Amino acid sequence: xxxxxxxxxAGFWAVLLLAVVALxxxxxxxxxxxxxxSISRIANRLKVSSHALLEINDLTPDSVIHPGQExxxxxxxxxxxxxxxxxxxxxxAGDSLWRIARRYGVSVGALxxxxxxxxxxxxxxxxxxxxxxxxxxxxxxxGGGRDDLVATALxxxxxxxxxxxxxxxxxxxxxxxxxxxxxxxxxAPHNSKALYKLGxxxxxxxxxxxxxxxxxxxRPGISxxxxxxxxxxxxxxxxxxxxxxxxxxxxxYYHRRFVGAxxxx
Length: 265
What we know:
With 265 residues, the chain is α+β, with helices and mostly antiparallel strands.
């Protein structure tokens, strides 16, 4: 091999080496999913937003994650995000979430979101709770605010439809929405017309995940409500479907019966 040829090959390998070193994403961190993890819990632990965690892993709010799965975690500095120290409280006989929240200076919604509590009225002595930083709201504890409102709603997917219900044994449309809002610290009525009085109006083309969407179905005016989750879909307790399920807002039955939307902050 002559000297000119050797020089060309040396130049080629030098360029290739520089390209490999400069590959984007080399400074990204990863996280291995543990048993009991959820996107909101991981986002809270790593101090990133749920939306960013979903986006970088090409996931949607209703994607299922499983133990052992490796997730990419963005970090602009290339260092593992530092998790804030967490206080813990062991539930004693006679405790209530309200009493615990008052003791530590946090909201009930923050406790519920940080511990994935399904029924705030039913807590068992002996269970250890994560206590968020003093003054934390539900959105702070969940690590993603509106994204985690959607994540909470999706936990009830498949719960049977039950008129006037508001529990995991069965719920109706306003029962689902009121329960999700209450979990996140928002006082909400169990009535679709009353829910329509909350928040501020949002145009259909400006909908964001977590917005409440309202319809006229069984009668004129507001008679049905759900929670928009993005990508033209919403989650609701459907009497027609018999359970809490997803449907499309951008076409078909509910597209024609859409009345309006509200954003509850």
